[in-house]
Amino acid sequence: MMVAAPASAQRVMPIRAAEALIAADRGFAQASARTNAIDGIAAMFAHDVAMPRLDATFTRSKAEAIATLSAEPRNRTATATWAPVRAGISADAMQGFTMGMMALRDADGTVRRAKYLSYWRKDRDGWRVVSYKQQRLASEEVQPSLPPVLPPRLVAASRDARAIARHRASIDAAERRFSDEAQAMGLGPAFCKHGRRDATNLGGSRSGMLIGLDKICGTIGGPPPSPVTWAPDAVEVASSGDMGVTWGMIRRKGPVPTGELAIIPYTTVWVRGGPGGVWQYIAE
Q1: Residue-range domains of the chain with CATH
Q2: Is 0.85 topped by the overall pTM?
């Protein structure tokens, strides 16, 4: 006979898993302070990390990500430090995300500020980033810490390739449905429908993160149809089927405003209550 652990114990275990991920992120940040920004940031990358490039494509390897970081000459002599303000963990404790604030200190003393979103996978070498995104921040805004995103309980990791493929296909379908429905109901209502109430968006370069679905929906809007479409190029998903990340391209419809891009890379972290549940975005 199986006896369920007390509710308090079930809750502690996911919290400890999330704390381990936060500790890993902070550990890489501390080590980064002792080297240049390129090596400091790249140290946490997985071999297959996806990171947006200036040409509106994604890297497919750590070497390509290092080349992207190196394309900014100041990074070669700058130091990068960062601090997570939110984390989430999958039920199998093998994937998760962190998001936070970053400072890049150039050799001349200039400080470049940014926000970041990292999606992590636990490999044999420990926690490594498989999807990474930065957003420049023009202000010195301080972002308070946010509650972690936790599953009700932890479960054993699975190697069932067919089940994982079904999880991956379900996120892909959810992302495409999100875009399709935005064409009919408008971008703002679609963001309201497909996000979790406590979702967080990195926001633009002039302000801090958008925290909560009301704030996100109030910022991203406009009448239907949506001025953009999007679809995932790739999906990473936990074997527990409750967390994953998509990345791909947002494509503008019609004329492109002067000074703006026709194609924009995006990254979205998704969660659900478990296999068979409804996917909702939680971070982007």
Answers
A1: 7-137 (3.10.450.50), 161-283 (3.10.450.50)
A2: yes
